[in-house]
Amino acid sequence: MIALNAFEKLATPSEASAVNCLALHAQGLSRRYGKHWAVKNVDICLPQRQVLGFLGPNGAGKTTTLQMLTGNLAPHSGSVSLCGVDLIRAPQKAKSHLGYLPEIAPLYKELRVTEYLRWVARLHRIPRALEAHAIDQALERCKLTTVSTTLIAHLSKGFQQRVGIAQAIIHEPDVIILDEPTVGLDPNQIRDIRTLIRELGQTHSLIISTHLLSEVEAVCDAVLIMHQGDMVFNDTLERFNQNALNPCYRLVRFEKIPPFTELPQGLPFKTLYCVAPHLFYVSFLEAIEPQTHFTQWALESGLGPIHLYPEIKTLEALFSALTPPPPEPRVSP
Question: What are the residue ranges of helices labelled H in the chain?
Fold first, then answer.
């Protein structure tokens, strides 16, 4: 069994060939504000036609990461490429592959829907001969045809979100990034937006930032979790669910990343499977009592102390285990 390093493992959603056709590739992204590192050495590999759910508690670094992925904020270190085009070296060309809906949709509410989309189409330099078709297609995909001549200010919150998505997809980008696309919507509107996301995922690559675990489970193929600026989990939901149901697998965090790429003989476990830097799924031998034998092996191997998580069966349990709240400040009597 091969123990892949974090970057190699995270780049392979289901097929090894996907490594060669990534829609978005971010490596070593870091950003600080003063002395505080908001994002620390984050790698993201988004294959074609994958929907990635981007999770994390408030202050985890999600918004900063999205701003770097979209070219709205320069990283202090690291790189981002969209369909093989470097975002820093060739920003205009790279951004032609990108559609973005920030948390607050960039709408001009004094315009009618069609007027606004025409303006967006021209910003994206869609040829005039194709402009009407691009607008009609965006209206149809986002189910806005019946309100195309309505002032955006007169639309409900749900329809305004649809207009925001329409502006993100009008130029047929390869990568679509949606920040909190269902925030503030009622259950029916949420259902409609999720249906739209599923449809877009069949032909585009998407990153969906959200606080709703149910949303990730409903529409996403993979999940990435951030905590305090670090990427603490990145895997497909299919593999997570398989491992969660397999009693022989346990989630382990090493203080240091194991240096070997193939498992040497005589180790106290069968397989080692990386899901984030320092974080691994481990399959133990039947005769091993993990808490003592495995901890002793890790210390003797120079990997430092480990944290062996209890059985994790749901995405909610995983999120809670990997993103513990900071300790309450001690109050002097």
Answer: 6-10, 62-69, 91-95, 113-123, 128-141, 157-169, 187-201, 213-219, 237-244, 290-300, 315-322
Cα(328)–Cα(322) distance, integer angstroms: 18
> Which one has a higher pLDDT value, 60 or 329?
60
Residue 184: C-alpha distances to residues 103, 108, 158 (Å): 11, 19, 8
What are the tens digits of pLDDT across the range 81-134?
999 999 999 999 999 999 999 988 999 999 999 999 999 999 999 999 999 999
191: amino acid identity, one letter: R
Q: What is the 3-state secondary structure (H, E, C) of 269-291?
A: EEEEEEEECCEEEEEECCCCCHH
Backbone angles phi, psi at 157, to 5 degrees: -60, -40
> For residue 26, which of 72, 90, 82, 99 has the smallest C-alpha distance?
82
Cβ contacts of residue 14 below 8 Å, gap of 6+? 236, 238
Domain range summary for the chain, segments of one domain joined by +? 105-172, 237-322
What are the DSSP calls for 81-120, one per residue?
Answer: EETTEETTTSHHHHHTTEEEE-SS----TTSBHHHHHHHH
* Phi-psi label, residue 199: left if phi above 0, alpha if psi -120 to 50, beta otherwise: alpha
71: left (phi over 0), alpha (psi -120 to 50) or beta: left
